[in-house]
Design goal:
313 residues, Rossmann fold, 2 domains, 12 helices, 20% strand, globular, binds flavin mononucleotide
């Protein structure tokens, strides 16, 4: 597979997004594991998704592989015991770009997986707005899978409205709303095409090498961005008077940092993912960021009468 073919990942807003730093390395002498089964029949699509963007792409990939005749399990990684990830010929793992990188909680899950010796693996990433660190995150995720012994076949990415709540909470809604039309059906069609290409690569026995990925984006990813963000966060708690005990915040929190009964959030373990604020249906999850009250993604959609498109492909 040459690089031009490979970089045709998932497309954002009609622009093909390249994943620089990844090189094709089919055949003998590859530094990455070889694909154990080039006639895959069982696949897993696992994703981390806080507000649904990555989940939608994951479902499209799963559907495309089902249409191609594979038996596919597809769900949020939080519903998958790492030890149960066995017996698959093909795996795709997806993540949102958080702080220009693969979020720590997903890394922990990947590290706990059993060896993936020769299982063909693809990564997919969703990012916000014009994007920041998305190529690095694609490649890093693929490289984490290769670290477990998987055979990397490629990576794709897709842009949509950013879910970084401090942006609109501090008065810059326009920056986020500029991308209110995404994802659209083109995004989903391209995601299905990406799935088809990944499957075709597996059948041809073609791998890529994610090791050459560490460009300038790696510098941004290496900064302590979560810790710096947490310095600007304060007063993170639940207003028990308006909380309806739906438990969405608890379900979304990747580090079990929320004590619903007490209305408290453990700031030591919080990863500043904003999943709690973004999903709270009543605005009961409170937080301040650099002096501004933070309000969530569900509220942003409501206030601007936006309904995110679901895939029909
Ligand atoms: C805490 C946080 C950090 C983010 N950091 C980045 C980033 O560094 N680069 C970027 O392009 N998008 C960033 N985003 C935007 C998300 O990657 C994007 O909205 C993604 O599609 C959300 O996926 P989900 O709905 O599956 O959770 C960030 C969003 C959040 C909430």
């Amino acid at each position: 597979m040459d690089r031009r073919t490979f970089v045709k990942g998932i497309v954002s807003g009609g622009v093909i997004m390249a994943v620089p730093g990844l090189t094709g390395c089919a055949g003998r002498g590859s530094k990455v594991p070889r694909i154990a089964n080039t006639n895959p029949s069982r696949a897993l699509v696992a994703w981390y998704s806080q507000t649904g963007h990555t989940a939608r792409i994951g479902r499209v990939i799963a559907d495309a592989w089902r249409k191609a005749g594979l038996v596919v399990d597809a769900r949020d990684y939080r519903d998958i015991q790492p030890s149960a990830v066995t017996g698959y010929d093909l795996i795709a793992v997806g993540t949102p770009v958080f702080y220009m990188n693969v979020p720590d909680n997903l890394r922990d899950w990947l590290a706990a997986l059993p060896p993936l010796d020769g299982v063909a693996a693809a990564s997919f990433v969703t990012f916000g707005g014009h994007g920041d660190g998305q190529e690095y995150t694609c490649a890093r995720l693929l490289s984490l899978l290769a670290d477990k012994g998987a055979a990397p076949v490629g990576s794709g990415m897709s842009g949509n409205m950013s879910t970084f709540a401090p942006t609109w909470s501090s008065g810059n809604s326009a920056r986020t709303l500029k991308y209110r039309h995404l994802p659209d059906q083109d995004t989903f069609r391209l995601a299905a095409g990406f799935a088809d290409r990944m499957l075709a690569a597996v059948r041809r026995g073609e791998t890529v090498n994610p090791s050459g990925l560490f460009g300038f984006q790696a510098i941004g990813a290496a900064l302590p961005q979560v810790a710096l963000t947490k310095l600007a966060m304060s007063d993170h708690h639940i207003d028990l008077k308006t909380c309806i005990r739906c438990e969405l915040c608890v379900e979304k929190c990747p580090t079990d940092s929320i004590a619903l009964g007490a209305g408290t959030v453990d700031g030591r373990t919080c990863l500043a993912c904003f999943g709690c604020v973004n999903n709270c249906p009543t605005g009961a999850m409170r937080m301040r960021f650099a002096g501004h009250d933070v309000w969530g993604f569900s509220e942003l959609l409501k206030r601007n009468d936006i309904k995110i498109q679901e895939p029909t492909v």
